[in-house]
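Wait, can you check?
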Amino acid sequence: MMTDEILTAFQNHARLASGTRTELERTLAPLGPHPEGLLVFSDTTGAQTDLNLTDHDVPPPRRGRPKLGVKAREITLLPRHWEWLAGQRGGASAALRRLVDDAMRAAPEDDPRGPDRAYRFLSAIAGDLPGYEAALRALYANDPDETRAAMRNWPDDIRTHALVLAGFSPPTAPSTP
């Protein structure tokens, strides 16, 4: 499991917050150790996960831009790549972010994990909602319009998150209240 994995928390079909495990534990701790109806899912896999909401030492916020989710990592490029990046608007980091964002927007349907990710989420939170089985059939048929139609009477937060996990809608930025 990645330590910086983004998780999304729901309570009674309403999206509460998104962020790293540490951010969610800090944000949701006031709800108590076992909040009624709280479900937390990995945005990477769609699988349900648990949080430790009991009193524990949560590390203080780190310096930098944690609310933006900025992480410093090392990459290896050839000199010609560094030269090209250096000449781009905003510098190398901004150019790389734009390239990655463009690639993600250009082919979200190319991610074969999308239907499975959405299925894991939906099977845990939406199995009792009207149109659930029709939504799953449309999801695995890779039919965004039919999937949306089957989910039309669902709570907005569940429908929106499922469509993002499936790759039928652009990702939303992590947010904590």
Residues 63 and 70 are 11 Å apart (CA to CA). Residues 74-106 form one domain.
